[in-house]
Design brief:
- By secondary structure, this protein is mainly α.
- Helices cover 80% and strands 0% of the residues.
- The chain has helices spanning 9-25, 29-45, 49-65, 69-85, 89-105, 109-126, 129-145, 149-165, 169-185.
- The longest helix is centred in the middle third of the chain and has 18 residues, at 109-126.
- It is elongated and about 60 Å long.
Length: 192
């Protein structure tokens, strides 16, 4: 016979967060949003704000993917505020890149640039090559959107060598995507 023990608040929150992430990945947005909001409420009640920050990040990703950029930015700002207060430089840099993407798509380029300058500072502090590449590629996207093609090339060049020795598949794909967009912007349809 199975033994049923009550879950601790930490385990309940972790389970809800995991379920919300899976629902988001399966494009079940309404269900995911409901669980993310549950995580936020329960995390605040139990004074486990790290989980609330993660839920804000999940909501931000989901909202950005569906084009709700203002709401997405608000959730990323919440996540970034938590990371700043608690010295989570890696999480902060990654969140600021997502926030910068929202700002760029909204035409708020100066906000995007400020977010990325802060992200770059934190990426240098933690000396994580993948986070540094992520920030440089995010900067390249802002430069692409503002027509500073020479700066896009510099972002690609500074990322290329690091990509050979480290990085995840998602970063390599991010690099290729920016490289293709850059080449299209230059009119080089074949190389794109």
């Amino acid at each position: 016979e199975a033994l049923h023990l009550p879950l601790s608040p930490t385990h309940q929150i972790q389970g809800l967060l995991l379920a919300a992430d899976r629902l988001r990945q399966a494009a079940k947005r309404e269900e995911a949003a409901r669980l993310y909001n549950q995580v936020i409420d329960l995390s605040i009640k139990e004074q486990m704000r790290l989980f609330a920050a993660k839920a804000h990040g999940g909501l931000g990703i989901m909202l950005a993917e569906s084009g709700h950029l203002v709401a997405a930015a608000q959730h990323f700002e919440q996540q970034a505020a938590f990371a700043r207060v608690h010295g989570l430089s890696s999480q902060l840099a990654q969140t600021l890149c997502r926030l910068a993407s929202c700002y760029t798509q909204q035409g708020r380029v100066s906000h995007a640039q400020a977010a990325l300058q802060e992200a770059l500072h934190h990426a240098h502090q933690i000396e994580d090559p993948d986070v540094l590449i992520l920030v440089r590629l995010a900067m390249g996207r802002v430069f692409l959107n503002t027509g500073h093609l020479d700066r896009v090339q510099k972002a690609l060049d500074t990322s290329r060598s690091a990509l050979l020795t480290t990085s995840t598949l998602s970063l390599r794909l991010n690099y290729r995507d920016l490289q293709g967009l850059y080449r299209l912007r230059q009119g080089d349809w074949q190389a794109a």
